[in-house]
Amino acid sequence: MKKVIQFVTVILLFTAVIPTTGQTVDKMAWWKEARFGMFIHWGVYSVFGNVYEGVNVAGEQIHYDRRTSGYPSEWIMRNALIPRSIYREAAQQFDAEDYDPKEWVKLAKYAGMKYIVITAKHHDGFCLFETQHTDWNAIEASAAHRDLLQDLVEEAHDAGLKIGFYYSQNVDWMHEGGMDFIPELNNGTYPADKVEKYVNDLVIPHIQELTTKYDIDLFWFDAPGASNTNPTLAQKILDALLQSPVGNKVIYNDRLAPGFEGDFFTPENDTPDIPYNGYDHNKNWEACSSLNSSWGFEYEPDTYNAYNYTWKSGLYSISRILELASKGGNFLLNVGPDRHGVIPEPAINTLKEIGDYMQLYGETVYGTQKNTLLNPFEYGYVTQKTDADGTFHWYLHVSPAYWDEKSIVVNGITELPENATLLATQALLPVTLENNNLLITLPEMDCPDQYYAPVELVFSQTPQQVSKSNIRNNQIRLTPFQASTKDLNKDFIPYTIKYWYGRNAEMRFRIYLEKGTYQLGAEYAAWYQPGELYFTINDASYTGHYQATGLASDPNDFSHYISDDLGGLSITVPKSQVYTLSVKRNAEVPNVTNWIYVRNFTLTKSGSDAGFNSPGVQIYPTVIRITTDKYLYCKTFEVQTFHIYNPQGHCVKTFIADKQELKIDVGNLPAGVYMVVGKRSLHKIIIE
């Protein structure tokens, strides 16, 4: 009998990439070491600042701004349907009079960024560089009257930073033949012959100019999903890059066109929803995000917050750096200077906050690999390194929210480290080994860092691990990662469910429980109103009650999270076996304003049965046993990418499923236990 995996899911915003080997590995070395870079969106859209009062291409008088549109500022030409002639006139206000590339580089370097990527040409077609192939450039068409890239390239290299150019090769709203939907054509598209002429006469010559005049290290393509892309033309563009003077060293991303994987792939805005210890180690990826909700500058008369109130804090940004590094990825963090070349003050302040942290603890980020912990770390983020002599380092970034627990636990470690050091003070910390758990005692002091306090564990070689749950004080802690989930958002907070309000949202755990009575608890923050959580274990149902706590403005601030017994809820299991524990809420009517964030659930054994007979309790995802029929059957409600991991944690197969049932041949995989990881879903398959 075949077993079919079925999920309700959302569309992934990225695709898996298998990078090439050989020379690419050498070219990628600096990028893997860097882990953190600066993105800069700057152009004529910086003049508008996401506000437009005037006529559109239909001759209608309109008012357009962020409050009514919700769109980022760099798309204003298309979204407000601004005529080309009016948009060109705006370039006369793009003066760059306060542009100081040395200061930009100085800021990036202090923030701990190791490379810079700037928009040489965005979707409006405006070029920040001198070019012989269009007059729509900073020298001829704007009040700046200068090449805006050369000095930045030189300053970056002088400071020891790498630099790359973003170039919108497909979408171009200003030049005839630009791909995708064109405002001047009432959002129509150009025919194929004009697209080909655009590529041959503008894009390829631009790439030749950008790679001849400037000593760049990286090329960042964009908009691979433009409506009328052509793989033949895309190959010509790539050939121009790789045959250029920098072709032997330049690396490039996955956004040239569909089917062109590049050296690294680039999920945007959201943290990739991947296993807590990352993809297979051969995959290179970089997540990009902006310091607010727009990539380009958003203008307002009095305050930088008038329309764009979503400036990200230092805590948010540091959390993203650590989380992405822990999963083996880079973080490209964007700023949007104004028309004068001034980076907004809120962005500068946040970058300085980041820099203060990176100056102290950059060693826990640079050159690290995805963490190889078999079990989630509940207190923050984990990065790791292996020295040339085999010495192994784990860096445990502990949130102040958990400092009062006086100790932290690393699950499933079978040996003691040579030492454990609190990096803030260089103090050695006591470590004990209990039931294959490392218990690290924290010093009697306030948390030494307001963001995360790193603890370094050093082993003479890679330590051995076992897969198990965290059991201490007769308590099992269940994290969202260990669950199969439906209609839930795993946010950037470690293993946290965010915005849980839908009537269909569900978490489901497969877990071995010994006979006895358990007190159920949860660590959560709930906005506005109290509510109920509905638990089902096999055929028995229970209702737990949660309190209104109020949410912190920054979801990484755990001061509003509480540990609660859910109204004294307890469950009794009649015998020792594997159970399915399901958790839902708001079963009748969803309330989008009554959010709840959940970090974990707890099961505490109580009464005469207190205590566990086994040293560890295995957490089970959904199990599928494959015997004579060596196929895995899968279908989803929307397109989704899945990865199959072997017991060593390496990805052995990747596939994409949708509404049509897909038959996956696993007959070539050796017998054993494998994990199937998809968006918000985790399953175990046993091949016999």
TrEMBL record:
Belongs to the glycosyl hydrolase 29 family. It is an enzyme of class 3 (hydrolase). The lineage of its organism: Bacteria, Pseudomonadati, Bacteroidota, Bacteroidia, Bacteroidales. This is alpha-L-fucosidase. Its EC number is 3.2.1.51. One of its GO terms (cellular component) is lysosome. Gene3D superfamilies: Glycosidases. Transmembrane segments: none annotated. SUPFAM superfamilies: (Trans)glycosidases. One of its GO terms (molecular function) is alpha-L-fucosidase activity. The keyword Heme does not apply. Pfam families: Alpha_L_fucos. One of its GO terms (biological process) is fucose metabolic process. Alpha-L-fucosidase is responsible for hydrolyzing the alpha-1,6-linked fucose joined to the reducing-end N-acetylglucosamine of the carbohydrate moieties of glycoproteins. Keywords: Glycosidase, Hydrolase, Signal. Residues 28-363 form the Glycoside hydrolase family 29 N-terminal domain.
